[in-house]
Amino acid sequence: MDTTEGLNAASWRDISWDAETRRPVAMDCRADPAQATVRQAMHLRLEYTPTGFDLPAGSEIGIEVPRIWKKHLGMAFRELHAEFDTDDERHPGGSFCLVTARAPEDSDAVCEQQLVSVGFEFLIHVVIAEGTLRAGETLTVHLADPIGPACEAPKSAQAHPFRTLVRPAGQEHFQEVTEPPVVHTVGGPAAKLRLRCPAIVESEAEFKAKLCALDDVGENAAADYQGIVYVWRPGAERDAGMLAPLTSEQRLSHVPLKRNADRFDQFTAHDEFAGIAGLGNPIGTPEDFDGWRIFFGDIHCHSRPCDAFGTMRETYDYGQWVSGLDFCTVSHQQLSPGHSFSRDDWDEYLAINDEYDKSDDFATAIGAEVYCDAAHRIVYFPSTEEARKFPVARSWAETQHPTPEQMWEQLEDIEAMTVPHHTRFIWPPDWSRPIDPRERCVEICSRWGISEEGGPYSVQAALAMGHRLGFVGGTDNHLGQPGNGCFGVSDGIGITGALADELTREALYEAMWDRRCYATDGEPMLLYFSLAGEPMGSEVGGWQGERVFTVVAAGTQQLHSVELLCNNTVIAHAEPGARTFTGELSDDRAMDDIMLDPHFDGEDQFCFYYVRARQADGAMAWASPIWLTP
């Protein structure tokens, strides 16, 4: 591998993976500035000083720049202009950030640079064209040269490393630098408060709520915030509340509160001096949910080392302390383009999962995303022991995309379940094929959108064919921010509500396996329905009685509608005109008139019901179906 002539995404992938197997090389590397506020404008420069070796003519440096780095501000028809370019001769007065590489003035080294697209990053490829960059001399690479527009720090508050590989002339292979330059971003000013309470609390019991101040840039923990937050029930006397001191350093305050005796409770938080506020989630009692507790989580988000940003630890910290989730899954991608994933990566992934998995405080579910030839699927495991049996596939180069059947065959001796996602948007499933009993749920919403209705790849199409799939939601966030969307104005969010008796990895897995779960498109709404004590997700055989469903819903805002669907058609609904609804929705049609013929051999006729709730602000939630067979 002695040349990068014709360097492209595929050749750089091979170079990058080869470098992972080699001993890193020592260079003094730094970023200036090394710290920034999210979306701060800057003329960023990266400095590289070889120590103990020279870089003669023909030496190469490759610097990976995540595409979350952008040009600061834009212009009319921004999409017509490059964000970054290296051509200073045609630099048209500021239409792109100028990328340059320069040796010191007293050095005889002459540098050339080019930009190469390599997937989720672009590559700054620097070549020492003439002379020698000697040990102790500093090569300065400008991501945004001061003679042109500034670049803009990413909107997510985390460490942003610039992975760098070096190949001295005469050597065959690239090597990673030991400590690449890093820019640490912090959140912006406080713009709102996030108050998260346990979803289910016994009447008049004491509990602790999570409180965090957020910016308005990327849902980050706000920087430089210090205030006194008043927490009380909307509509109640203000002196019945309590004061909670909160600072950026705390990031979160465990506020002690007491539930009232009502069926549903809710709190609000307000810092009057700073002018920021936040409304908490609805709180129910176990009696309204047949004794179950409800936990909220994001079961589909990503971090490094796959095609995402932020470390696993940053990601889990964000999910627990900033989003205020009860549980989370960083689902590492198998066969991800341009990124390797080794057995060592998997072992480290499992170790960090166990580190953050703390019963009744925060739980981590273990999952790996597999790119099947018909739909992306996440494989979930009930334990670390089962997950260790998973056959890790490093890359497209080593393993072609398996069929779903091949994936399930690989899981033959492993306790696991699979969940397809973004079914209506990219890489769609083939619902005409039978699914394995391990396929228990489907992701009905995520940042890609809502897959409930619309065409042959929708969730409704799968249900009509007889697939028994519960509903879950996940953001598919690639910024290391579970519970948050990715794209700004049109952020799409998906979270899962799991009905379990305790907050443990095993109990959450059981809830998903039993389809005792529901999805929302972002808001922590409460939703439940049952038939004669049989909860959502149940399969009930030989049913001949009345079909009167008990439905419970509570929103963060007023509920616009609560609908009961049978075989994908609304057959009963309520318009609560309030934040809560507890009642019955029924179907009095003859069973023979609603039975569907099976699509697959050997199966019985069936019908199915599910509940959909919508708030006045448009937020939605979907309860997993209940299936009936004669």
Plain-language structure description:
- With about 625 residues, this protein is mainly beta.
- The chain has seven helices and 47 strands.
- The protein is globular and about 90 Å long.
- The mean pLDDT is about 90.
Which keywords apply here?
630 residues; mainly beta; 14-stranded mixed sheet; five-stranded antiparallel sheet; 10% helix; 37% strand
In short:
With 630 residues, this protein is mainly beta. It has 7 helices and 47 strands.
| CA-atom Rg in angstroms | 27 Å
Task: Let me know the largest β-sheet.
Answer: 14 strands, mixed
Cα shape = globular
Tally of separate helices = 7
The number of E-state strands comes to 47
**Average pLDDT level:** 90
- Which class best fits the helix and strand makeup? mainly beta
CA-CA gap between termini: 66 Å
Low-confidence runs of at least 5 consecutive residues: none
Helix proportion of residues, in percent? 10-25%
* Range of strand content: 35-45%
Topology:
Layout: H1 9-20, E1 27-32, E2 35-37, E3 41-42, E4 45-50, E5 55-56, E6 60-66, E7 70-71, E8 84-85, E9 97-98, E10 100-102, E11 110-117, E12 121-130, E13 132-133, E14 139-142, E15 151-152, E16 159-161, E17 164-167, E18 175-176, E19 182-186, E20 192-196, E21 206-214, E22 226-232, E23 242-247, E24 253-258, E25 268-271, E26 276-279, E27 293-301, H2 312-322, E28 327-334, H3 343-356, E29 363-364, E30 366-371, E31 376-381, H4 384-387, H5 404-410, E32 417-420, E33 441-446, E34 449-450, H6 459-464, E35 470-473, E36 495-500, H7 505-513, E37 517-520, E38 526-531, E39 534-535, E40 539-541, E41 547-554, E42 559-566, E43 569-574, E44 580-587, E45 607-615, E46 620-623, E47 626-629
